[in-house]
Design a protein that fits this description.
207 residues, alpha/beta, Rossmann fold, 2 domains, 5-stranded parallel beta sheet, 8 helices, 15% strand, elongated
Length: 207
């Protein structure tokens, strides 16, 4: 079983491990007791960061499907409030009963992600998510959501464990301004999950 939630998490762990061993080696070279002290300090820091992450992340809530309702999983971050996305959701809903579950991956810089400084990114993503759900509620849709993993593919996998979606709607910026498109996220989601996928392009600059 892979203990890491994504490749980024594994890479971050590798870098931190290399850095920790380097500090311990330098400390031990200077003085044996200094090396031991560095090891104890790094171990205590690692435990504190782990406990902090566990304490701040709320338990996932299972989304229970209602019989006869279509289930739509929407994945978007900066584009979650885009008019194109709201329009695409309306088109897929039509007049039938539907449940909409919105996942907003918490975008962050690589440096802050590697150092577990994810609070600002999660707060920003949560604010966008709350506004999007409010907009969906205004047009009469049963919508809820959560902040997802920084890796959008991992965020989709996590969401599908608790929300049996009939369709995935994935929203990105236009080509040339979208990191997700550069990384091939749309293709990865389409190939990895056996759920129909609709890709929606949201041009926030034009909006």
């Amino acid at each position: 079983m892979n203990p890491f939630r994504s490749e980024a998490a594994a890479f971050r762990f590798l870098l931190l491990t290399i850095g920790a061993f380097a500090l311990i080696a330098v400390g031990s070279w200077i003085n044996t007791w200094l090396g031991l002290g560095v090891w104890i300090a790094l171990t205590a820091t690692a435990i504190a960061l782990y406990m902090r992450q566990r304490g701040e992340r709320p338990a996932r809530q299972r989304v229970v499907a209602v019989a006869g309702r279509k289930r739509l999983l929407v994945v978007a971050n900066e584009t979650v409030e885009g008019e194109e996305l709201l329009g695409a959701i309306r088109e897929r809903v039509g007049g039938e009963p539907v449940e909409v579950f919105v996942v907003s991956p918490a975008l962050n810089s690589k440096l802050k992600h590697w150092t577990s400084d994810e609070d600002p990114a999660r707060a920003t993503a949560q604010a966008r998510l709350d506004r999007s759900i409010s907009r969906l509620a205004e047009i009469g849709l049963d919508a809820r959501g959560e902040i997802g993993d920084a890796d959008p593919v991992q965020a989709v996998e996590d969401a599908l464990r608790t929300f049996g979606a009939d369709e995935i709607v994935l929203s990105t910026h236009p080509e040339g301004r979208s990191h997700w498109l550069e990384r091939g996220v749309v293709e990865s989601v389409r190939e990895r999950f056996d759920v129909p996928l609709t890709h929606v392009v949201v041009d926030l600059e034009r909006q």
